[in-house]
Amino acid sequence: MSKKFKVLLTSPIHPDCHLALANECEVVVAPDTKPETLKALISDCDGLIVRCQLPQDIFDGARQLKAVVRHGVGLDFIPVDAATKKGIPVANLPGSNTNAVVEYCLAAIFYFRRRLDLIDSQLRSVGWAKARPLADPSAEIATTTLGIVGFGAIGSNLARAATGLQMKTIALTRRPDALPSEVLSTTKTELFSQADVIVICCPLNDETRGLVDQASISMMKPNAILINIARGPVVDTSAIIKALKAGDIAGAAMDVHDQQPLSGKEAVFDCPNLLLTPHIASITASSMRGMSDGSVKTILAILNGDHPTNIVNPEVFH
């Protein structure tokens, strides 16, 4: 490289990949992700690797920014339109965390269907005789119906895994013609009323914000569960809480939330049959290394003048 570029990391990346980046560039890790901190640090940076929500005006004071790379897939963390207006290329890493998220969904399904955690706890505290009957109402996932909302990389790979587990799979997607033969296209009403497990994995945009509302949840079966690994605002959290407290649905798993991080005081913490995780569906040791490696390679490519195929706003080069 002809000059020592400066790259800002909103959050730490894999140590080996950090070292690889530091061998080529000056690297700055933000001490926190507050908007004012990020806006102050971005002013003299050439590159930005994103692992948190950026303020909408982050690029206003970016005097020499040449590349923004999402450490992952979801682009809602980045004001892409604002970057495009300033001629700044933005890239993400499609497929980099797909396997990890699919495995999270499967883990959540098994969590609710077998409740080994509860059985283990009861066996230890009250004994064999009282713990053993807790298995009686458990449900096998084979032959049950999985409803997938959003059929991108995650949805399609989840459907493939579900088929292997003998689940019937239905999907709500804007591209029904692209569905494989074993996945049936449905309407929103059909999906929410027929599925035993519903996984929300669509992107957050103006069309999907509030997509899973109280009317949708009211159509769910009493034994159904809902898993949200999309973004918090896609689902009406208050409606989920109401349904769980009333026993209208069997359970829900939320890896994403309306406001992140959670403080511990939100109403979700006082809700039964709700599995809460801190936005970690995509995080495993291997996926983190893969995302970090992809981020570093992509940002170095852009700073070197290349145009990687994973740039989401290639019009900035025209």
Q: What do these coordinates show?
A:
By secondary structure, the chain is α/β, with parallel strands linked by helices. Helices cover about 35% and strands about 15% of the residues. It contains 11 helices and 12 strands. The strands form 2 sheets. It has a 7-stranded parallel sheet with strand order 8-7-6-9-10-11-12, sandwiched between helices. Strands 2-1-3-4-5 form a 5-stranded parallel sheet. The radius of gyration is 22 Å and the shape is elongated. The two termini are about 25 Å apart.
Features:
seven-stranded parallel β-sheet, 11 helices, alpha/beta, 12 strands, 14% strand, 318 residues
Question: How many H/I helices?
Answer: 11
- The helicity comes to 25-40%
Largest sheet: 7 strands, parallel
Approximate shape: elongated
**Beginning-to-end CA distance, first to last residue:** 23 Å
Low-confidence stretches: none
Mean pLDDT across the residues is 96
Number of strands: 12
Secondary-structure element series: EHEHEEHEHHHEHEEHEHEHEEH
Sheet/helix structural class: alpha/beta
Query: Numbering strands along the chain, what is their spatial order in the largest sheet?
Result: 8-7-6-9-10-11-12
